Amino acid sequence: MNQTMRLLCCMFLLCTWGYYHAAAQKTAFTNPLLPSGADPWCIYKDGFYYYTHTTGNRIDVWKTRNIADLATSERKTVWKPPASGPYSHDIWAPEIHFLQGKWYVYFAADSGNNNSHRLWVIENASADPLQGEWVMKGKLATPEDKWSIDGSVFQYKNTFYLIWSGWEGDKNGQQNIYMARMKNPWTVEGQRVRISYPTYEWEKNGLLNNPNDPPQVLVNEGPEVLEHDGRLFLIYSASGCWTDTYELGILSFTGTDIMDTASWKKSPEPVFKQSPANRVYAPGHNCFFTSPDGKEYWILYHANSQPGQGCGRFRSPRAQQFYWKKDGTPYFGEPLPEEVLIEVPAEESRPVVSGARSGPAGPVNSKGPSGGKRKK
Known about the structure:
mainly beta; Tachylectin-2, Chain A; 8-stranded mixed β-sheet; 4-stranded antiparallel β-sheet; globular
């Protein structure tokens, strides 16, 4: 075989491999994305999804170009806690953010005693969060230094804000949503403001049967901010995660001062809840992301597949598309059943998958989700 023939053969093999490799990429998926994983979080940046969830004893980050390949994607433990100390145990609800040119992970941790749960932040200056060194920036000290979990950071009108779930005082019994301004991605300044607390009956399901706990705990937690077409919303999880009625509520920013409680209007009804017909229970603790083409809006959340599975290892991450109603509010629909085939988040060249669903049906804006901003 002469050199020209060898070159032609090599080019043919490379083209053939590229064709079959592209064809092998998944264009649809079914929930759950992983067998287990509570408090899921992901962002899409520079062609990759970066995903994390609660493991309890470390922080892991997944990296994938296709959300449908999450289970087989690259995964790395980026941080392990010390054997003892104030952030050595119960590593909960990590969130990975890219802010001011660096990566940050916010998480809750304690010393082995739940009463000491506080928020912490680590930083990485590498372009790739799976590379470089993660440095402990320290305690994300919230005003009054009370019990704090589920921290999330967002930017609004050139100012960073921290939102979290916490206690009013020093005893368990009720979790509220608080907000405070930030001086930079690792420093809180000023006072905390209570944005939400359990008020409706559907937010107050939290009976406990443990002699070491209060008889009942009322819960608002897992706050996440969603911005679209100049409007701001805060979505949160309500009722105890140990109940099947763990579900999502929403507050709309209707005033001029984001730190004024009166500027936030709570919906009297949940916006995303269990669906026994679809065999999805206790859906909650979500985040939001957009598709690679920037035109689709997605909710990522955890849920159980059976009733009564509580807050343990049975919770698994699930994703589905959501839409915007004519009044400008988000419409999440119902949690989709596990057997439903869902098209992956759209790229410009994505083929249509026969038989796949793109999201919930319902009274949405006929123009579809377009022209909005990413939350982060």
